[in-house]
Amino acid sequence: MTSINITIEAMTRRGTLSGVLGAYSYAAFLVAGPWIFTVIGLFCLSAATCDGNCIDLAIFRSIVIYNSMYALIVTSPLAFLSGRYVSEQLHSGCIDSVFYALVLSLGIFGLLSLGVAAPFYIYATTLDAAEKIASIQNAIMIGCSWLLIPFLGALRAYNAVLVAFGAGAVSMLVLGSVLRDPQVASLLLAFNGSFAITNLILLATVVRRFGTKVIIDPGLKDRLGKKWELPAAGVAYALGLWVDKIIMWHSAPSGGLLVAGALQTMPSYDTAMFWAQLSSIPVIAVFFVHVETRFSTLVRVYHARMQERASLRELNEIVRNIGTHVLSSMFGLFAALAIVAGMMIMFSFVFMTELGLQPAYMSILRVSLCSMAFYTSAMFCFTFLLHLDLRRPALQIVSTFLVLNSVLTIALLPFGPDLYGYGNMIAATVSLLVGFSLVLRELSWLHYHAFITNNPSV
Amino acid sequence: MTARADVCLVVEGGYPYWVGGVASWVDALMRASPQLTFHVIAIGISAQARRRSFVLPANAVDVTDVLLDVCPRGRSPTHSDADRIKRVLRLLEDALTSGDRSRFEELIEQVRITGFGQAALLDSKEGWHAMEEAYGRLLPNGPLLDFFWSWRFLVRSLLAVMSTPLPQARVFHTVATGFSGLVGSYAKLAAKIPLLVTEHGIYTNERRIELAVADWLFDSGAGGFDVTAKPAELRSIWLNAFQSFSRVSYAVADVITTQYRANQAFQRTDGAPDDKLRIIPNGIDATKFAAIPRDATPRPPTVLMIGRIVPIKDVRTFIMAVALLKDLVPNVVAILIGPEDEDPEYAASCRQLVHQLGTESSIELLGRVPDVLKYLRAADVLALASISEAQPIAMLEAAATGLPIVSTDVGSCREIIEGFDGDPVDGCGGIVVEPCNPKAMAEALATILLDDAMRSQMAEVMRRRVASYYHKDRVTRIYEGLYADLMAQPAPLIDLESHDQHQYHH
After folding, report:
1. The domain containing residue B256 runs over which residues?
2. Is residue B259 domain-shared with residue B338, that is, in the same domain?
3. Which end of chain A is more exposed for a tag (fewer CB within 10 A), N or C?
4. How, if at all, do strands B381-384 and B405-408 pair?
5. Is residue B493, in this structure, part of any structural domain at all?
């Protein structure tokens, strides 16, 4: 990931508006491309004219929400692992099996979709045949996008990423404006078609770089055994993001929405949470472009000086610089997140209708924005640790959030709507504290990790 | 279970896998005493191929491999182990620096009690902390990476030594100090088995030479901008460690033998007590070699060199000497016999040098040959250019056949060629020259090759000296007597089987 960061930061230094916008857009798409794209899709297609009966739009939104959840949970472990694999392969200059890794992850995802998503839509929902097929297709489209992103990131193919998501977004906008009183199937087809354009461009970029030759890497299984924490962190991360929503959908005494026989959501909770999460993306882009880049540069300097036979005293000095950078940037980013949250709260009063919010949702939005500031900061800690290949402490952060988010959301449900979202916020706060203390602790052991924990020769 | 042996021979980097002087000596020692049984502990590292180059004699009951870079992981440490880990690592550091017998004994005991291995002492955070402290003491401001790998290898090798499964034997006989000396010391301290240490070359001297030319070591540059500072060197850490191993071995051994007098001075300097020191030369079958007839067929003047093609034999100096010798004896032929597989890079550089000097027509590099005697019979002089030797068997065998010798002044070569105090045989059997001096060697070879009378006289001196002092029957009797004396000591207090089980349990 180091070189990607440097590439993006270099774009910001071109001194042109297009360079700065491109850099931040690219960073945002790399971090949350499919999620942003999904929101754009929902926004555009929901704008299609609806004469009275808007149930189709509600079903469409529910399907996309379910598929977003399913795709993220299933693809995160695969994407975490394949992302690390392709980075390592590119670093070592041995890229023969990269396409195999993509085929393997897409194959696993395809099989899981046939085993999980397909039976769900076929047997559990009351959708008609075309809608069922389009729903399954939708799940696959979103998942493929998540699986392709790490490969594009490793390739530093920022133009391809921007073109792919740009083309998809334009398609959504056009289709959104063309569709009149659309049915679920046509909405899904429009959404899937746009996603397919994006995925095809992403896939073509990967194929152009790595070819289509499938060369099996027998070491991949060993890698999975040695780095099991990566997929585990992927699962915990994705589940942690969705677990409170799943609990709310199925356990909240009021505010639930059941469509198509099995698609249970809770618009008041979901909408607030989604906007809160979306509002963090600009700060995440800043983190990715500047903070992580500086961090990775410092870590690279550390390793280079170590290889150049630096003394312990000099290496200690570099570690102190890394620690200072982490501390100052964490405080700075948290402040930025708090400002964004505050602004969102103010804007939400003005643009309530445009954002799809209702007065009843506002307290949840406020809580979820606070939660967003803590959670995003915790994820920064998670990223720092993964950058140092400290997989277990990273897993600890996302596992803490997953467990606390589940337990506290359930525990606070009996206290009614006034405390909706508080479980998520407390979980995020504790996760940040855990993450921050882990980062500080592990940084003080950086020599140990560099020489022992992450040294393949030991 | 392996049968109990009379003697456990501990050999580092040689027998039964690598051909060499010491390895051949070990083989001959076992064959010379068929009534005794032997167990061999072969010390090496995992990267070395372990294909046997020797056929074990019938009285060798078994071979145990000790790989210095493979040590037990031991139990995983807990938070309460921090102080114990620190203590054991301090003892390990002492074993690498002080050469204190009692500290080494305490280390053995602590490792046994705690069950610590690599997991606790090297891979844990406490172990890292202790390494940083050791770095501060041993190589302050030096390159951390180099210290890390050196420390890791040395500690692992000590742990490997202390996890050696001790075979049932009545005497331990180590054929050097160093790691084999440590294994013997471990056997003596842990199981109270008598220990005999035999040094062919002085271990610390040989390692000093190796480290001086080692390309993986370099001046650390530690000391920063302080020009008056005397920077600690990584090389000194290794040298101190080897010296410490020798000191421990000398302190623990019951008897310390070497083959010639000059070595004893080094042993005393490294702390060997006078009352333990003995001299036992190498023995060869002098009668057999003396009976070999010289090849009388006409041939050009022939110089023979026998030895492994490795830097310590300084084959390049010999090649340069032959190039110079051609000016003095134009039709001279030089034959080089010895395996090239130990250091292929060096062997290639030797071949390249032959080509560069245009001596392809005068020098034959034959590699390993099935019958060395054929070449001994047909040579006029034996050359030896080593920068370090002990008491080379090849030289004694050549001398026994009646071959004059030109040798560098290393090890006991001067004693063999010129004799020693109390030597019943007068006269010189060759010429001794200084090491790394091709011109001196060329002149000495020319002197002998061009003077038939001198050559005959030197040949006779050599034959008689070897027959009187270096005869294997005499040497075998001395060793058997020594073994008998050591075996007569009280029996071991510890049952080895249960001792080993205790080790494995951890």
Report:
1. 5-25+34-72+168-283
2. no
3. C
4. parallel
5. no
